[in-house]
Amino acid sequence: xxxxxxxxxxxxxxxxxxxxxxxxxxxxxxxxxxxxxxxxxxxxxxxxxxxxxxxxxxxxxxxxxxxxxxxxxxxxxxxxxxxxxxxxxxxxxxxxxxxxxxxxxxxxxxxxxxxxxxxxxxxxxxxxxxxxxxxxxxxxxxxxxxxxxxxxxxxxxxxxxxxxxxxxxxxxxxxxxxxxxxxxxxxxxxxxxxxxxxxxxxxxxxxxxxxxxxxxxxxxxxxxxxxxxxxxxxxxxxxxxxxxxxxxxxxxxxxxxxxxxxxxxxxxxxxxxxxxxxxxxxxxxxxxxxxxxxxxxxxxxxxxxxxxxxxxxxxxxxxxxxxxxxxxxxxxxxxxxxxxxxxxxxxxxxxxxxxxxxxxxx
Length: 362
What we know:
Layout: E1 9-12, E2 26-34, E3 39-40, E4 50-51, H1 55-60, E5 68-78, H2 85-100, E6 105-109, H3 115-125, E7 132-135, H4 148-160, E8 169-173, E9 176-179, E10 184-185, E11 194-195, E12 203-206, E13 209-212, E14 235-237, H5 245-252, E15 258-262, H6 270-280, E16 285-289, H7 307-312, E17 316-317, H8 323-335, H9 340-350, E18 360-361
Parallel strand pairs: 2-5, 2-6, 6-7, 7-8, 14-15, 15-16, 16-17
Antiparallel strand pairs: 1-5, 3-4, 8-9, 9-12, 10-11, 12-13, 13-18
Helix pairs in contact: 2-3, 3-8, 5-6
Organism: Microlunatus sagamiharensis
Pfam families: Asparaginase, Asparaginase_C
GO molecular function, one term: asparaginase activity
């Protein structure tokens, strides 16, 4: 029996163990933070769903998983939009304890609204070879075609697989396995909305096994631990006619840094470029591509407001990191007191490559 974690509860699924009696089973720890996958309604029409189910409730709805012993822990029962740094720090403590105690991997269930940010934040600090897998659902538990059980089943199988090791934090949705650093929620609704636009998924779950399209590859976790509070970092998406007024307001409010979602490969107007130069003298200004796919360039264009011009003005380019990932990284670095030079080095390293695809079966 696991000890209670934070204000939640832990339960080894004995008579409720997925797959029935287990012999020489691989052990996987599963924790729930809440989200749509846990939501139910007391209304006849099924509307107005709210978080209500715990981790053990979710696992009882999962189809049989042969040779997997599952431990269930409920850490929180909230929508994804209400998660905070303290929740994620709790996830890291729980997951590290679970794998250090012998679990082959850990699965975290949460709301899909923030998965692309929370999974990457966890990945920045996940310092174990065992996989930490994040999943959720797009349809509530009582909805026709609820996708939660299938997603949870695929996530547990992925966490149990030997070939999932040394890949950092993974996001498993609709039988696709994504790297936390690349995945995006690309549509507001529907059962299959998570994509990795720049690289494609790392693999898929097929017939009870996880197949990867390449060997393990990830950036090393940040040397410093998760700060008690992240830095104050907004994302400002540029637009036609943007002359930098919002960036000046952010600078005047004393924020710790800012991410600008630039046009194309990292372009802004001439007016905004001048403000970027002024602000970058005081705090990090990171420019990412607002397209959400593909990298920022460094030297192809040379006009005022181009990527090369912004580099000369002191901006940091996000590379392959989209604006949301860039904000997550910059907030973590700012919370740890990183200098602009240290920020630039981390973005050069973490934004400088994309994982590419040899099928590896797990």
